[in-house]
Fold this sequence. Notes:
Largest sheet: none
Radius of gyration: 34 Å
Number of strands: 0
Strand content: under 5%
CATH topology of the domain at 636-735: Serine Threonine Protein Phosphatase 5, Tetratricopeptide repeat
CATH architecture of the domain at 636-735: Alpha Horseshoe
Shape: globular
CATH class of the domain at 636-735: Mainly Alpha
Amino acid sequence: MNKLEIHKSISQVKSLLNEHRIKEAFFLMNELNGKAEQWKISDELRRLEETYRYMIHYMVEGIDDPYKDKLYSDMISRMSVITDEIERNLLCQFANNTLYLNHLHRHIQRPYDIKNLILSYSATNEKVELSSEVGMVDNNILKEKERLLSDIFIAIWLIQHLSDKDYQTISDSLNSDSSTYELKCQIISAILLGTLQYYDSKKIELLLNIYHSTNDKKIGIRALVCAILTMHHYREQASKDPLLRNILESLTDKHDFLSDVKSIIFDFIRTRDTDRISKKMKDEVIPEIMKLQPEIMKRFKNSDSDTELELDINNMEENPEWAELLDKSGLGNKLKELSELQMEGGDVFMIAFSNLKNFPFFYKVSNWFLPFSTSHSELAALREINNENLMNLICGDSIMCDSDKYSFAISVAQMPHSQRTMMMQQMDAQFEQIKQHHQNSLEHNLTSDYKTEASKYIKDLYRFFKLFNRRSEFIDPFKSPINFIYLPVIGEGLANEENLRLIGEFYFNRGYYNDARALFAIIEANGNCDDLILQKIGFCHQSEKAYDKALDYYKKAEILNPDNSWLIKKIALCHKNLMQYDQAATYYEKALEKNASNLNLVMNLGHCLLQAGHIDEALKCYYKVEYLDEKSNRALRPIAWCEFELGNYEQSRKYYNKVISNNPNAQDYMNFGHLELASKNLSLALSLYANSIKNSSKEEFRKSFLEDSELLVRLGIKAIDLPIIIDKLLYDLDN
């Protein structure tokens, strides 16, 4: 069997279980397990099927079993677990070419003992701490500690379903004051990866209990982040789990729980901005910086020598001498926008550090989730650098997440000495400014240390699932939007009007209109809808080009607020896009009553009148725009066309000459050609049509030309002549 065949067969079993086709599920599971050759599973399947047969027998005999429903539910749950085990065994046997399966294969050959691993790690850590106190850290002991930490991560990651023994061992370690912070972080992240591999409600239960019971809020918030991610990924299974629901219901009564969840939800939403921010950096900011650099260096060359001033990109906008260049390029505005996004918690560092994730350090899965420490063996060279500012920047309460800190630290440690010295000098000169910027960002974003930790941890998770070199082997929980309303119990707990508005606005202001609309719709369904919510639901529909639905909501909002000029313009726009031109014109006229000087409204009114066949009235609008906006040429085309349709050929020709002299397009040449064709100037018409083809293509010209055939026939052109004209043009172009 190959991987595809295994997944297909396992999916079939799960479908049978979901449809409660138990007999067929047993048959297929036994067949698959026969290929895996796991006889313990065969024995368990046989016992389960015997129980099922007895259940059927008792029911037929009319024997009332009060435990039947629970027994039936437990049997299906256990069969689902066994199905996962069969899948793992088959993949390990026939397709062990992923990190997970390679580790699993080694684990099968030599099983990990989690308790002993944790004990060994703790003992080794004590040795490291003792040697550190006397200033003689043995690098070999340090590497042994790191190896054991990695083994613990792998061992927990590989657990398919937590046993009671493993549950207790892990829970004790996470709750123990003697366990190191890095150990707890590794355990929690390993649980997340393992649960994403195979669903296990017991792991989610453990994470929620750790959040509730731990004295370390930073560990608690990490556990909650992972619980929310897994519950959202498995929202269907999680919502049906009575134990999870009970735990969540008890937590919703706790003072800080829903507040912590909201904070995490906002951070998840911000991760969706990351691609947009990175794209802006890559496509707009960095190219502009590269274009500006030669000009700046040229302008500010040191007059006293041949040396040029060093370009300080980070402080460009603060240098008054560069202000003119920045204004002209638009770079200043882009940098300001990015700075504002960063102040709001946006991940502006993703693209900067993405190229620094290729160090061997990041080949190991567990290292992506390590809390930063300069004591790591990879940073031995860094510890030798005697620079207080550098260490404060890296180790301090920075807005950088841990994996970015490792990226930066490793890159500094591996720099040539001369380059490193230059960087240190620049950093020393700018340190106070950098420090203040980081502090401002932290204060603006989140005030609680543990909530800041959640924000940085989510960035670490996002980087792993988006940048790890073997990321395709993992289920990416960030692949689809994380919406809290789908979370069991939590969605219900946050579904009051205040939270719905708050989170909905957060989505809306970031352009995630589908998610915003879903929350605003709940407010509407609850009967608490004002005109602003109706407007925003309408705008969400409009952004998705669902103009009929948008119009419906705008009209509802109009009843509540009939004089809203913004609303009137949106109603007009929707009518226009729905090709309801008379209605659109009516609303554009209403809008002009409130703002008669708005020439954009006059233009739109003209377009709607033209489309509705009111050419004389449309023409008045276009002439008004031309008169009041002498510097603009936007009314030339529609004036030329209206005059043509009205049969005023000389006036139309006057305006088409103006159009042709001012950056014409293919449609301009075609429309002018139509005018000359209707004027019986065939030779001139053919010349204009040839220019239209040159500015588009033969096929585009043919399509547009034939779309105008009805108009041309109405103006006196014989229908039989139209395809002949096209062929004449094609012959001329081929010669």
